[in-house]
Amino acid sequence: MASLLSSHLDQISLCSQSIADLPFPGPKIFTNALLSPNHDITALIRDTEQHERAIFHLAPPPMPSKSAGGDVTGPPKTTSNAGGTAARRQTAFPTGVRQPKSKAVAAVLGGDLYAKTRREGANARGKGDVDFEVLLEGAERLGAVYPIPGAAEKIAALRRRHSQLAANISHYEDRVARNAQELSLMNRSSSHYDDEEDAAEGEPGSEEADPEAEMDLGPLPTMEDLRREEEEIRELERKKRNLEERVEGMGRDLGGLMR
């Protein structure tokens, strides 16, 4: 009997030692307000962290309604007991607006931002335009509540990369438009010069043309110049496609970070 009691006491002592070794944070405002820090029990009681309060949030923000008035159509009211129960249930738990699946994430992001991130995620899956600022803002809010090592640095790097790629795309788009305009002007001037040359050959006495007028025309583009301009335009378009693919890759990275 004594040996059995001794084994139980040893087990209790080991459990107490393991509990005492747990790394709990020190008492905060809530603990000090309810219990005196002089008692040993305060070592086992602590205030909840921000991510824990978000997990057990009981009232997630409602999703924004698509209707202008925001009216929710409920079941028809009847005088029967079943109808009254359904009406009370509709009042207590409105089912006209779809609640978000991830209530903890919706509670952290808020209804509007959560809806925007869901739309952006659907657009990313459909290979449409993605608003990176919305995704980055949502990732920052989630990272502030659910800390992930290296997430803040990655979000900042993605923001810098997106800004640089957007500036590069804008620069190359302007350059492509400018080169296309110059190429159009060169083709127009070349065709205009050919028409004037054909008209001059058909008129008598065209050999005595004024040499100063010919000098005012300036150097005419050659076929080599046109081919070089077209090659440059194709190269710029290729760079633009590469930048757009990199932006889509950033969208996939952000989607993985949000999940």
TrEMBL record:
InterPro entries: Spc34 (IPR013966). Residues 194-215 have a biased composition (Acidic residues). Residues 59-87, 188-259 are annotated as: Disordered. Residues 224-251 have a biased composition (Basic and acidic residues). Pfam families: DASH_Spc34. The keyword Cell cycle applies. It is found in: Chromosome, Centromere, Kinetochore; Cytoplasm, Cytoskeleton, Spindle; Nucleus. One of its GO terms (biological process) is attachment of spindle microtubules to kinetochore. Keywords: Cell cycle, Cell division, Centromere, Chromosome, Chromosome partition, Coiled coil, Cytoplasm, Cytoskeleton, Kinetochore, Microtubule, Mitosis, Nucleus. One of its GO terms (cellular component) is DASH complex. Belongs to the DASH complex SPC34 family. This is DASH complex subunit SPC34.
